[in-house]
Inverse folding.
């Protein structure tokens, strides 16, 4: 009886103080294989190289996506990424395929991955892939240089309900609430994107490592 009472008191205290129970962060990439991932759209090449996932552009291919087989709703995801300066990339969150078909167009919120260049860029802002363009309001699309060109960059993304928060290298970049998109994309897969390229350009590469996710 004393043990049960103690547990009851603990649970009551947690509820009273607003304490939340969440799963531990798990690795989405074992560093050796692409187990748990599958490719959607495009012909860009995804492979494991020296403990990283490397995506390489393919001329003439549309945007390509390496997607988790599991679907996620509310979560916190962290990863390190490095991208060639000339390549635009991103990570899809709560993504779907058109009409639910395996080969359907990948769509949903995408957190931008992009080198800063001389004038800065939109890294960390949220784009609506195949759902209407930028979700980050136009007046907030201010180029910045929080993304370090030619180096590994650490991203942290929290998706909780309609709110999406993004940090790059520990600096806050985005805090967006979009009820409309959440209404259609409250749960989905994560996708690593290799963007399409123009004729005669590339090949370019983007690499990811240390991909962990904690469901909230």
């Amino acid at each position: 009886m004393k043990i049960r009472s103690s547990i009851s008191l603990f649970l009551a205290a947690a509820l009273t103080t607003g304490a939340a129970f969440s799963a531990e962060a798990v690795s989405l990439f074992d560093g050796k294989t692409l187990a748990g991932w599958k490719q959607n759209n495009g012909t860009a090449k995804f492979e494991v190289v020296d403990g990283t996932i490397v995506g390489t552009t393919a001329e003439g291919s549309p945007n390509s996506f390496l997607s988790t087989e599991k679907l996620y709703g509310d979560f916190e995801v962290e990863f390190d990424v490095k991208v060639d300066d000339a390549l635009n990339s991103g990570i899809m969150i709560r993504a779907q395929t058109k009409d639910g078909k395996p080969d359907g167009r990948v769509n949903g919120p995408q957190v931008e991955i992009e080198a800063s260049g001389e004038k800065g860029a939109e890294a960390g802002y949220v784009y609506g892939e195949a759902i209407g363009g930028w979700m980050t309001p136009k007046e907030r699309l201010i180029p910045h240089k929080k993304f370090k060109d030619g180096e590994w960059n650490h991203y942290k993304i929290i998706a909780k309900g309609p709110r999406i928060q993004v940090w790059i290298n520990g600096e806050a970049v985005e805090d967006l609430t979009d009820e409309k998109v959440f209404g259609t994309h409250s749960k989905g897969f994560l996708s690593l994107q290799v963007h399409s390229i123009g004729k005669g350009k590339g090949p370019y590469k983007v690499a990811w490592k240390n991909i962990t996710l904690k469901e909230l």
Q: What stands out?
A: The CA atoms of residues 44 and 57 lie 5 Å apart. The first helix runs from residue 2 to 17.
